[in-house]
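Section 5.1 Outputs to date
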Amino acid sequence: MTVTTHTRAPWSQLRLRQSAHMRDLLAETTFSVAQLIQPLFFVEGLNGTEPIPGMGKSNLRFGEAALLERIARDLDAGVRHFMLFGVPSTKRLHDLRFDHVRRVVAAIKGRFGDALHLWADICLCSSTEHGHCAILDDGGHIDLGRSLEALAAMALEAAEAGVDGVSPSDMMDGRTAFLRAALDDAGHQHVPIMSYSTKFASKFYGPFREAAGSAPQFGDRRHYQIDVRSRRDAIASSVRCASEGADLLMVKPGMTSIDLILPIAEATGRAVGAYQVSGEYAGLLALAEKGLVDLDAALLETWNVFRRAGAAYLITYGARDARALGLGA
């Protein structure tokens, strides 16, 4: 009996999809909790915790003692990488200080040591009175030189306290090379730089800005973050960061930048990660609260899509839940 091609092909696909064993065998992505990074918000002077609108019960603003206890629970849940965002008690226009970064990094590393890998976000938006990611001159324009000096000072405070890596998110021109030189000159050649190398001026950062106290008090960030319509600029930004010495690259927001992950990796030869930002995560929570999506399944779906698109690692507010969702250690 002759079987025609048009009857053979559909059955072939059904056989490949019919069981979990087959689907897992042929999955084009394999990853574990080890590729996930959990963001943390430390607020200087805060006792206990404060909620972050839209971000659920586990993603909070933490005082130091509460932060250390949260990290201990996260380590028990399999998380090994953390991204620290430090919020000072006092904001300034100039002469920014980063003592809070040094103290909390030293506290975390002093308690947990090499049990975790701690990244420090490097940006000025939580420290400035106006909420922008730079120091401004009297005319309200970016003072690039002073901004780079402040970013380097922040990175050095973190490095001298024992941080495992720094992650500049400010989008100032030349900041990766400036930070690399500052770290090297201070004897911190071992500290890697994970650059927010392609960061768009997005509407999906709302919950984060509440958490970090970093909403701009005037204007917006479109004159230093990337226009969402620009593909060439987005790729070129990561190429520049790679040429300036970034060890790891990143796209942000993750889902709306998913088309850029592989082209950036191919153009630079660097590992490229994705940041599933606060608005993306909060959107899933909102759907789940309305009974419109299974949150656990939706998180796993998005993570697998990021990996399918070529993301080497993920920053996600759900990292602490990954092992409970079945992602391997």
